[in-house]
Design brief:
alpha/beta, TIM Barrel, 22% strand, globular
Length: 395
Amino acid sequence: MKRTASDFIYTGLSPEPLRNAYVEYDDDGTIVSVGLCPDPAAEPDFRHGAIVPGLVNSHCHLELSHLQGKFTKGSGMSGFINQINELRDSTSVENKRKIAAEWLGILWNQGVSAMSDISNCDDTFRLKSESPMYTRTFLEVFGTEPEDCASVMDDVRRLAEKAAECRIDAAPTPHACYTMSPELLTAASAEALAAGYLSYHSEESPEEDDLMISGAGALADNYNGRHLSTPPVTGKQSLYYFTDRLRKVHEGPFDEHILLVHNVCLTQEALDYAMQYMKNVWWAVCPLSNIFIHNALPPVPLMRRNGLRITVGTDSLSSNDTLDMVREMFCLQESFKDVPFGEILQWATYNGAEFLSREDTLGSLEEGKKPGIVLIRNVDADGRLTADSISERVI
């Protein structure tokens, strides 16, 4: 049995840290006990900083890691789509895989024990199958033209077969209201719900809502200019539309695990409507990506008032400078100063593990679990993050 101690230990279950505390664990990383140090000076392995459970990145696009530093910031969603279309294949498959492998290793060493990852191809399947990190891969579906629905679904099912050959958990999932015909949105949602897990980009930008409410705006102009079909104008925010398309699969309540990602434009009215039907929903925030594209942040106070289960992701290196979960948490801590760091950490650990149905082993420092143990260095005197905070894996 091994033991390490620190100035602060956050278990992932409480917003308040234990001060001058220890965690004991077996050789395989299974937690044996957590407690207070009778004499911190006598601890042989005392590490200054905060010990936390392994982190859970609830939204990432690992296969886009080769795009780091190539995108113009502040472009809005329409400009971002133009850039992704231009640059997605700007390097060889071999180089994409090499860079993705490097970043997967960085994520693991920084303490990420599990990840919800988006894939549009099989570039990262083998990497994830060989990694000690648990990943659930969402095979993202696109297609604006109704007549293409069957062929697009055939393609993603073949991709799912490749994922199965690599023995990774994977299934199709819909992308967003503006990249899919109504028929494809429902078809992809049906496949995701059948697998028990659905991830969906929701309320990410004002342009998305403009498109759904009035059929106008930058995103509408972009798609009309490329002669692509757009979703029907509903006069309501996009979350209403997505909820109604889900109801085409089966009537609620939806007990399947649903992850709504971004939520920058979430309102009380839209979430009230969705919550009538979605009984197992988590709400992912990716603040640095939202700032990168829109210079905006999700309405965290609204989300907290409603008791929503929030998770934290990094999004991709096309819309972020790094995949560092500590930077995401620091951004949230500094942007919403009344939120305890320990609560933000719960979003980035236990809540993410719960979405993945891995809370029995991951997400918190509890006896019998094997979440990974992570040290965050350079915290302040109250155990909160600083601009210099960095994370490293202990086990």
